[in-house]
Amino acid sequence: MRQRYVFLDRDDTLIVDKQYLRDPAGIEFTPRALEGLQRLRAAGYGLILITNQSGIGRGLLTEDDLTAIHARLRDLLARQGLALDAIYYCPHHPQDGCNCRKPATGMLEQACRDFEVDIAQSAMIGDSEADIKMGRAFGLTTIQLRLDDSRPNHGADYLATDLAEAADWLLNRPR
Ligand SMILES: [Mg+2]
Ligand SMILES: [Zn+2]
Question: From the CA of 89, how far away is ligand 1's center (Å)?
């Protein structure tokens, strides 16, 4: 049976963007991120992380570094009783021309092969234009997380200041 998922960007959505984070100790959740994930889980959404990590293609961190970061991320979430169903990342350099770097939809396509996704009932939450473009191209509801007002508006279905607000809108919107 198909299920609802929320696809989440990582940097400046789930955790604070530290610019090519390499040290697992540098993980810092964005405001009310855990609260938002709790609400989505309680409402029955699956949670899948979709993240561009070109720092690998640029030689700024290794795949092992990223594995360690995501292991700690999962550990920190587990302490709150939370889990991600999957983490997909694009390790490529922007000039590699891959089909997975957002706004390309390769990671979403892979997620749909691995999980029974009800696309019409699922959503993409992210801070960047690439997140919103990818989500829209795939037919997902889109929510732009804008941690401060200085960021541009990318024309998502909804603008939220944090993940808890994004979750509230998603759970309460008319259908
Ligand atoms: Mg981001
Ligand atoms: Zn890629």
Answer: 12
Block means of pLDDT (10 residues each) for the chain, 175 residues, are 96 97 97 98 98 97 97 98 98 97 98 98 98 98 94 96 98 85
Number of domains in the chain: 1
What CATH number is given to the structural domain containing 10? 3.40.50.1000
Could you tell me the distance, in angstroms and rounded to a whole number, from the CA of residue 51 to the centre of ligand 1?
8
- Give the tokens for residue 129: 């234009």
Strands (E), the chain: 5-8, 46-52, 86-90, 123-126, 141-145, 158-160
pTM as predicted: 0.97
Q: Give a yes or no: residue 123 inside a domain.
A: no
Taking the CA of 128 as reference, the closest ligand is 1
